[in-house]
Write a structure and sequence with these properties.
Shape: globular
CATH architecture: 3-Layer(aba) Sandwich
Order of helices and strands: EHEEEHEHEEHEEHEEHEHEHHEHH
Strand order of the largest sheet: 3-4-2-1-5-6-8-12
CATH superfamily: NAD(P)-binding Rossmann-like Domain
Helix content: 40-55%
């Protein structure tokens, strides 16, 4: 298929592009910044071994907030994988709405106008997380009634738009990958490592609470499986799916696994959950009163995520998409450690 990947320059988008190209699809990215708007970036398979069947990825510069640019980019495509989003736990609600809601609406409208028949949307499990434990829940869990930050609120609204647009002209599906990590992760790993090195990474004591995550290759594979299973009236059309490792564990285990991959010692949980929640609310309130634009060290959302269970039943993804987390957490951490070691060696040479 001829596939456009919005946000193709991002962490997940790059992985989706690589896998699509590996499977023989013709891929183009739509992203805000590209090294050279006219460039064709050669896709490399794992190990930098070139497969002659892999086609180049065409990079298109544009912004999902610009409906004309989106429409121009989707023309002639057989499918769109919409990974572009504004992520994070802090920032003006207006910015999140413009990218995550208006941008998604622009993608849907462009697909309908241009006759693109398939749309895979990257959503988030946070759309159902209202601050209470989510233990083995499936896709029947309702959307949260309240959100602690603009990101989950706008992702929930965007997912509703995508699923409501499913029909004879446009088949849609939404995936909810949870806490994506792996080599070149620009979000979790750099934050945890930086704070650990400064001695400022503090973990709450939350006995019995477990979370699940997803390794980048597994998340990308779920998107490709969804795309290849999607067509009007197909079992996956109009549905959302959780995507994870299916290895729920204490959040400290995951964080300390990332730190170990970076060559750092573990951090012991030591702060009671109730105090962590009070601190998160207080720090966030203080930053808002002072109109500080930088992200605070704690927010209500980050503390709630760290002190509750959130792991999911993957039965539907297995049944309808054929999804299995082929890369285990242990294998993913081993790959991450090797990647970081190679990068360190390259930096020193």
């Amino acid at each position: 298929m001829r596939v456009l990947v919005t946000g193709g320059g991002g962490f997940l988008g790059r992985a989706v592009c690589r896998l699509l190209a590996e499977r023989g699809h013709e891929v183009a990215t739509f992203q805000r910044r590209v090294p050279d708007p006219a460039a064709r970036e050669a896709v490399q398979l794992p190990g930098d071994v070139r497969d002659p069947t892999v086609r180049d990825v065409v990079q298109i510069a544009g912004d999902v907030r610009d409906p004309d640019a989106v429409y121009a980019a989707v023309q002639g495509r057989d499918a769109v994988v919409h990974c572009a989003a504004l992520a994070g736990v802090w920032g003006p609600a207006r910015d999140y709405r413009e990218v995550n809601v208006t941008g998604t609406a622009n993608v849907i409208d462009a697909c309908l106008r241009a006759g693109v028949p398939r749309l895979v949307h990257t959503s988030s499990p946070s759309v159902v997380h209202d601050g209470r434990d989510l233990e083995g829940v499936d896709e029947s869990a309702p959307y949260a009634r309240r959100f602690l930050a603009p990101y989950p609120a706008t992702k929930a609204e965007a997912e509703r738009l995508v699923l409501a647009s499913d029909g004879a002209r446009l088949a849609t599906v939404a995936l909810r990958p949870h806490l994506i990590w792996g080599p070149d992760d620009p979000h979790f790993l750099p934050r945890f490592v930086a704070r650990a090195r400064r001695g400022r990474l503090v973990l709450p004591r939350v006995p019995g609470k477990r979370v699940d995550t997803v390794y980048i290759d597994n998340a990308a594979r779920a998107h490709v499986l969804a795309l290849e299973a999607l067509s009007p009236g197909a079992p996956v059309a109009g549905r959302a799916y959780f995507v994870a490792q299916d290895e729920p564990a204490p959040i400290a285990d995951w964080i300390n696994g990332l730190l170990a991959a970076a060559g750092l010692p573990p951090v012991r949980p030591r702060v009671p959950a109730c105090l962590a929640r009070l601190a998160g609310g207080a720090v966030e309130h203080a930053y808002r009163l002072a109109r500080v634009r930088s992200q605070p060290p704690l927010t209500r959302l980050t503390v709630v995520q760290a002190t509750t269970s959130h792991w999911f039943d993957l039965t539907a993804a297995r049944r309808d998409l054929g999804y299995e987390p082929l890369v285990s957490t242990a294998e993913g951490l081993s790959r991450l450690a090797g990647h970081l070691a190679d990068r360190t060696a390259a930096d020193r040479s």
